[in-house]
């Protein structure tokens, strides 16, 4: 199960390819149609609720607690952060060190958390000698 976020379309596509049912919680009338279309195109079950992103996330957490077969795939899942941190490793491997600045989108802060985790682990292991300045950006009106 995922909640409206940056990985909504990709997440539902990957699950469809693997034959896994994907349910997506979205705030009714408050999601970009292009993003919703990607999920629908891949057969995701769309559940619209009266509320905002935080309400969707709260419901998703409750459902995952009540039904252990449901896995959350957004920023509250520590396995997602662990897996995504390797993207920071790839950046360092290509550049030879951490960049001076790394700017990326944030919604619920999963992206920036994962990259920061990767950079700090490489720094602690002595692979890099500096940490980047992290800049999180978010579109106006997002997650209302």
TrEMBL record:
Pfam family, one: PALP
Domain Tryptophan synthase beta chain-like PALP: 16-141
Cofactor: pyridoxal 5'-phosphate
Keywords assigned by UniProt, alphabetized: Lyase, Pyridoxal phosphate
Gene Ontology molecular function, alphabetical: threonine synthase activity
Keyword Lyase: yes
EC main group: lyase
UniProt entry tagged with the keyword Lyase: yes
Superkingdom assignment: Bacteria
SUPFAM superfamilies on file: Tryptophan synthase beta subunit-like PLP-dependent enzymes
EC identifiers of the protein: 4.2.3.1
Membrane-spanning parts: none
GO biological process assignments: alpha-amino acid metabolic process
Protein name per Swiss-Prot or TrEMBL: Threonine synthase
Organism: Mycobacterium xenopi 4042
Phylogenetic classification of the source organism: Bacteria, Bacillati, Actinomycetota, Actinomycetes, Mycobacteriales
Gene: thrC
């Amino acid at each position: 199960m995922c909640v409206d976020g940056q990985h909504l379309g990709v997440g539902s596509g990957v699950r469809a390819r693997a034959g896994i049912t994907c349910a997506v919680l979205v705030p009714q009338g408050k999601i970009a149609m292009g993003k919703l279309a990607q999920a629908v195109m891949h057969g995701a079950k769309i559940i619209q609720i009266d509320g905002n992103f935080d309400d969707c996330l709260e419901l998703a957490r409750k459902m995952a607690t009540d039904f252990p077969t449901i896995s959350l795939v957004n920023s509250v899942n520590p396995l997602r952060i662990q897996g995504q941190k390797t993207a920071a490793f790839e950046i360092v491997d290509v550049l030879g060190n951490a960049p001076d600045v790394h700017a990326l989108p944030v919604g619920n802060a999963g992206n920036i958390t994962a990259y920061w985790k990767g950079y700090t682990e490489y720094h602690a292991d002595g692979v890099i000698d500096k940490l980047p300045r992290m800049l999180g950006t978010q579109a106006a009106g997002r997650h209302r």
